[in-house]
Each structure stands twice: as C-alpha cells, then as structure tokens.
Amino acid sequence: MANNDNKTPHIHWTLALIPMAVLVALQVLVIREFGSDALDGASQTVLLVAAAVAVMMGMLFFKVPWKVIDHAISENVKTIVGAILILFLIGAVSGSWMLSGVVPTMIYYGMQVVSPSVFLFVACLISALVSLVTGSSWTTVATIGIALMGIGTAHGFSMGWTAGAIISGAYFGDKISPLSDTTVLASSVGEVPLFKHIKYMLITTVPSFTIALIIFLVASLCHTPGEAVQADLFAEGLQRVFIISPWLLLVPLATAVLIALRLPATIVLFLSATMAGVVMLFAQPDIVAQVGEGNTFRGLMVTYYGGTSIDTGNEALSNLVQTRGMKGMLSTVFLIFCAAAFGGAMAGVGMIQSLTSALARGISGRRTLVSATVGTGVMANMATGDQYLSIVLTGNIFKELYKEKGFEGRLLSRSTEDSATVTSVLVPWNTCGMTQSLVLHVSTIAYLPYCFFNILSPLMSITIAMLGYKIFRTEKK
Question: Using CA atoms, how far apart are residues 167 and 138, in angstroms rounded to an integer?
C-alpha cells in the first residue's frame, strides 16, 4: 500500500503482532540466558531489534516514509523526558535517605513492634514501609525480607506464608511510592502527573491491601509462635552503624507536607534529597567521611550520584544500606528510551492503531475496557517475562483507545499498575518471579497462593470499574 500523504496505512492486526511476537520470543531467550540481569542491556537490545522489525515491515511492505516513523519515535521519546528527570532524582533521594539515617531509623522503630502473635501482619507492614520509603520491592525483599524469612522460620510459619506477607507488603509500597521506577513508568506511559496517578491508585490499592492485612492478622493469631532472634540482630546492627533518632523522621514528615501541598514531583524530590543531604552531614558525619574516603564533600556527592556500600558486619544489613544513586537508574533510563523507540516505531507504522482498533471492536464501555487492560497486563507479564515491558506494552496498546472512548489517562495508568506491576512476581519465568524466588529460597508456586495483595489488585481494579466509582469521562477528541 502506498503512503504518499504521510498518513499511516491500514495494517491487519495479525501483521501488527509480528514485531510483538519477535519481542516475546527474544525476551524468552534473554530471560533464560541472563535471568534477573536481563535489564542490564539484553532486554533493551531486544526492544530495539523488535523496533527494527516494525520499521522494516513499515518501509518495505507498507511504504511508510522514514520521516513519518522518525517523527513518531521522536514524539514518543519526548513524553518520557520528565520521567527521566524524576528517575535521577529518585536515585538521589534513595541514597541520601539511606545514608542520612532516615530509612534505617524507620526500619529500626518498625522492627521494634514485631510480635510473634502478629508476625505476618507486621511483616507485611514493615515490608510495605521499607518499600514505600525506598521505592523498590526488590531491595525490600532482598534485605529486610531475608531477615523476616528467618524470623518466620523461627516462629514456625511456613515459608510460603512468610514470603507471601513480605511480597504483598513490598509490592504495595513499591506501587504507591513516588520513588518507584515502575510507578513513574506507568504514570509516564499514561501521560498522568505522578502524584495524581498515585492518589488515584489508592482507590483500588488500599482496599486490596486492607483485605490482605486482615488475612495475615487472622493467620498470625491462629498460629503458635516461637522466638525471634534476627530482628534483634538487625536492630543492634542498625544502632551500631547509624545514629538512630526520631528527629530524623522530620525528613519524611516534611516530604509528606510537600506532597500534600501538591507541588510537582520534581520539586518535592529535589527538596527531599536536599534536606536529607543536610541531615546526613550533621547526623551521620562518620558515614559521609567513610563514603568520601575522608572528604566530606566527596562523600555527599557520591551519595547522590553513585552507589555506596557500608560494611555493617551483617550481610543482610549491608545489602539493605547499599544504595545505587543516580547512576543506578541508568539501566532503567536505557530501558525506557528503548521502549519509547519501540512504541514510537509501532505507532509510526500504524501497528498500534491497528491493534487498538481490533480491541475496540470488542469493547463497549468501562467494564470491558478495564478488564481488557488488566488481562493484557497479566498476559504481558507471562509473555514477555518482565514487568517493565508489560507496563510499556499495555500502556502503548491502550493509550489511544482510552482517549477515543473518552476515559482519563489515570484510569489507564491505574489499570496498568493493578495488573502489570503486581502480578509480575507471580510468574515463575518473569524476572520478578525468578528473583524473589531465588532471594527468599521459596519457589514461586509455593508463595503464590499467599500473595493476597498481588492476587486481589487486578480483581479489585475490575470490580471498581464495574461499580463505576470515581471513573470520569472526558470529552472525546
């Protein structure tokens, strides 16, 4: 089909699936070969290869001019610039909050309330707290999660129950944290301001998490506990390395105030990182000097942009206080750029439009639209084996359809997070499922039935859509 007027051609949806099939096939090979290290470059390369397939099909078979495709890619990349800045600021906040003692203080006081009779309930809450302040479910599971697994074993809880509580909390915190790269990515794909996206997610996230907490509380009360040891070791280690003080909690409190004032995310994160940096100089001078090899200014800068490692004498605790800084965000930035290139190529050729048109024929309203989005997010996790790719693919496929049907972008971003973000850990061959299984030494199938928050989230998203609660229409364009 010729394309001399710069309009994208009509492509049958089955042909539009070819680049996605290439993406899925190569991603399966990448996951099998690299495992959780796939995000270090292999997954990004796969995205570029799939984008190249879309470009070649468009130019060779449908005669789409390169300038049309190039323009579509450029426009798609422009939409992620804000997210890139936020990601770098997240790296700075994560490092400064950790080494200033803010996060260690929150963990320390949180662990004081660990009681055998409510262990699963508290384990879920602690995991949620750590994930919320760090913005990383992986870091939470790989650090505090390891300690909680040991405590759970000492109390006689099954590893599946304990892992389910940890993962439920970790993914709840990750999902609503402004420091989370998946949260930033989902809001970016849906073209929704970050804090507006988070606030809208609370409608489905809080009920799901509340139900999960009730289940964990009942299970804990019905269990005969044993003796906790690792919690004391963790608390002792935190006190030995950091100055622990309730005054340090003023930083997250001030950050919460800034968020409540509805300041832009970039301003909130910048001010939060700045406050934590000042606190770090006064509260943790020895740590700053250690990181900077005797130079305080160097230590402060390294905390913001580079990865830091503090030897606490406890491997799990050392992993917990390890930071990535802005440099640690580069692989995610790389992924987002490649994903934007893939989405732009698909859109430029007309493949995204073809897929959305095919889906639109079976969608009549908000119920089927949200259900289709949630289903696609879950299936994408199973097909691509990566939550980042699932978020990007789901968002790109449904973005124009939501606009066409007159629904807000935040409904898309929420539905995407309710499915693609939280169900990734339930898939054994997904990078999340593989990583958490290896870290916690529990098979994915063993902990899956107890990840109540992760199971309830997509169901809650569909339920709220059926009820029509807080779902608003926009003017069709």
Answer: 9
Q: Which residues pair with 323 in a beta bridge?
A: 308
pLDDT of 64 over the 70 cut: yes
Single-letter amino acid code for the residue at 71: H
Residue 184 CA, chain-centre distance (Å), reads 8
pLDDT tens-digit map of 287-309: 888 888 888 899 889 889 887 88
Average pLDDT over residues 323-334: 81
The answer to whether 188 touches 80, Cβ cutoff 8 Å, is yes
Distance CA 268, CA 77 (A): 24
| pLDDT of 210 strictly over 90 | yes
User: Are the C-beta atoms of 350 and 181 separated by less than 8 Å?
Assistant: no
C-alpha of 49 from chain center: 24
Q: How confident is the model at residue 120 (pLDDT cuts 50, 70, 90)?
A: very high
